Amino acid sequence: xxxxxxxxxxxxxxxxxxxxxxxxxxxxxxxxxxxxxxxxxxxxxxxxxxxxxxxxxxxxxxxxxxxxxxxxxxxxxxxxxxxxxxxxxxxxxxxxxxxxxxxxxxxxxxxxxxxxxxxxxxxxxxxxxxxxxxxxxxxxxxxxxxxxxxxxxxxxxxxxxxxxxxxx
Length: 168
Description:
Blueprint: E1 12-17, H1 20-29, E2 34-36, E3 46-51, E4 54-60, E5 79-83, H2 87-96, E6 102-108, E7 111-119, E8 125-129, E9 146-148, E10 153-155, H3 159-167
Parallel strand pairs: 1-4, 5-8
Antiparallel strand pairs: 2-3, 3-4, 6-7, 7-8, 9-10
């Protein structure tokens, strides 16, 4: 465990796009990122954006026609997730922008998380949520709360044990 690579934070996510202009427009006008200077030594077309403590690096595809595009919104697909202040405001804005989305509700011991999923212009899944409603409970080898196999972790016991860990 620990921090073997001495990591500090997520710096950026790179996304290859069909149209740099359309993707910049989406990330600026829908998600609220702003363009920042990128090194002039980079010999390919791209844009760097920043907000919320992370960067998005958009890279123009060398062969945009060959890129496949996800058309089905699947909450279990790879995605980037952002927390928001108001799910109702996000949903209203997506409706105004005529952006197709899927709603999902997660419940854990009476705590609810709302999720909205939609695609960027290249089919990258975006999630907007109020995920901070669910407390972060570390997994521990000594904990009786979690039962983990190589591929899945599930809560074994109920809210009482989770509350005890949070109180520590």
